[in-house]
Amino acid sequence: MSSSITPLLLVDGYNIIGSWSPLKSTRDRHGLEQARYELVETLINYTVHKGYKTQVVFDSQYQKTPSSVEHHSTHLSICFTAWTQTADTYIERVCATFFRRQQINHNRIIVATSDRDQYLTAMGYGAEWMSVEVLAKDIESSRSQVRHKQRSNKRSRGRLLFNCLDAQSQEKLARWL
């Protein structure tokens, strides 16, 4: 899949943290920073598996800081909004830009949130919506698929040392025999 047509997944970060029991529990026990970290770690593998470009958006509206973007991988970045901006307004702006086709880097935008107003706005701009529950189930399904594929790869190699070699080494060994 070409990077110019990669779907963009916009994640309303604090909304997800406040909606997922494990992340809510982490937030309450260990603080917001740890909950953000766990959310990002959860999304990294999911993003690669699904072929998404993901941007996790966090509010910074009550801190007098400019907006910033941190790139955690080629597929996932984190945006902290500017002092006067909410995650909702940031996501709405991205959806509006997509709707006007001013940004053609993505053929789809998916907004992950449980915020009803955000859902209606995103859909109004032609973006797709993914509920918090659906995102959680999809992440678990992706994890399961990856584990199944890893088990299948281990089984298919068999017990012979020959099967553990890369193709080039197997070819050299076969010529010797």
How does this model look, in words?
The structure is a single chain. With 177 residues, the chain is an alpha/beta fold. The chain has a single domain (3-176), classed as Rossmann fold. Helices cover 53% and strands 15% of the residues. The protein has a 6-stranded mixed β-sheet. Helix 3 (32-50) crosses helix 6. The radius of gyration is 20 Å and the shape is elongated. The model has no long low-confidence stretch (mean pLDDT 84).
Summarize this, please?
By secondary structure, the protein is α/β, with parallel strands linked by helices. 53% of the residues lie in helices and 15% in strands.
Architecture blueprint of SSEs:
Elements: E1 8-12, H1 13-19, H2 21-30, H3 32-50, E2 53-58, E3 68-71, E4 76-80, H4 87-99, E5 109-112, H5 116-124, E6 128-130, H6 132-157, H7 167-176
Parallel strand pairs: 1-2, 1-5, 2-4, 5-6
Antiparallel strand pairs: 3-4
Helix pairs in contact: 1-2, 2-3, 3-6
Organism: Crocosphaera chwakensis CCY0110
Protein name: NYN domain-containing protein
Pfam families: NYN_YacP
